[in-house]
Each structure stands twice: as C-alpha cells, then as structure tokens.
Amino acid sequence: MSEPSPSPETQPEIDESPVTVETTPEAEAAEQPATPTDPLEAAQAEVAQWKDLAYRNAAELDNFRKRAAREAQDTRAFANADLLRSLFPILDNFEMGLEAARVESEKSMIFMGMSMVQRQITDFLREQGVQEVEALGKPFDPNLHDAVSQEVSDTVAEGTVLRVTRRGYKLKDRLLRAASVIVAGTAIPEA
C-alpha cells in the first residue's frame, strides 16, 4: 500500500528564489589564497617558507642549548649555597671562641691551634668562591649591609659603617648573607 501524499495545504511553502550574498573585493581576496599562478613561483615560495621555518627552528634550538648550558653552569656554581649559609653561624661562633682565646693569651696553644683552623676555613671558603662583604669604613649599602643600629659619630661621615656585628658573605656575585652593621648618624637637634 502506498501512503497518500500530503495535501498542498499541509506542505510548507519553500522559497526557491536565488540567494545573493554581497561581497566586497577585500572579502573575495581574503577567501582566495594568494597562490602564484606559475608552478615554478609556487615551488620557490614554498621553498622560501620551509627555509624560513628551518632557520627559525635552528635559532630556537641554539637559544635552548645556550640557556640550558647557562642554567647548568649556575646550578654547579651555586649548588653549595645552602650548605655555606648553614656554615656561617658555626663560623661566627668559632670566631667568638678565637677572640676569647686571644684575650686570654695569644701565645697559648689553644689560640694558635684555633688560628690555624681559621686560616684553613678561610682558604676553603675562598676556594669555593666565597668572599667577605666589605663593610667597615664603607658607605652603608642596603643591598649588602643590614643596619642593626645607628650611633652618633663626629669622626666619620653620616651613613658610614662604624662597626660590623656579623660578617656578610657573597658567593661569586650573589649575596649569601648581608653584613650586620652599625652605621654612623648625626645627633638629633634638641627642640
């Protein structure tokens, strides 16, 4: 059995008129890829494109290699920084003991033995690239010094380091510990 066809009244009306889309010359140029009509020109353009991509990738790889080498060098150079930072308080206490032995007698065996150990520690730190931050008599530098107090002084200029209370250290060009210092200041005029 065949199904009856729908009556013309139930069918939707379809508009079969042609649809026109207005385009501008710029839109037409954007739709069509810019390809040379000559196959030789097309091949040369493709070769130039691949060459450019190869140069860019080679440069990127070269930059990556240099960056990786620099990071590896920094890692080697500063790998011991945490160990050295942990060593500094021990060195501070050792130097206090050395000073106490010096006050007692510079000719005692304890003082001489401790002096030799101090030289060995100093040589070891120097071999590792550690340098003491120069502070005494220098102008105060907040990047290298940590001011713990200020004292009035008539003999040195304001802002000059009078005393070092704790030594500071640098590893190559990187600060490991700032020097704790006392800075010269001027007297506050009384009102």
TrEMBL record:
A single cellular component GO annotation: cytoplasm
Comp. bias intervals (Low complexity): 18-37
Biological process, per Gene Ontology: protein folding
Entry keywords, A to Z: Chaperone, Cytoplasm, Stress response
Example GO molecular function: protein-folding chaperone binding
PROSITE patterns: GRPE
Cytoplasm is among the record's keywords: yes
Compartment(s) where it occurs, according to its Swiss-Prot or TrEMBL record: Cytoplasm
Top-rank taxon: Bacteria
CDD domains from the UniProt entry: GrpE
Gene3D superfamilies referenced in this protein's UniProt entry, alphabetically: 3.90.20.20, Head domain of nucleotide exchange factor GrpE
Family according to the record: Belongs to the GrpE family.
Entry-linked HAMAP family: GrpE
Protein name per the record: Protein GrpE
Gene for this chain: grpE
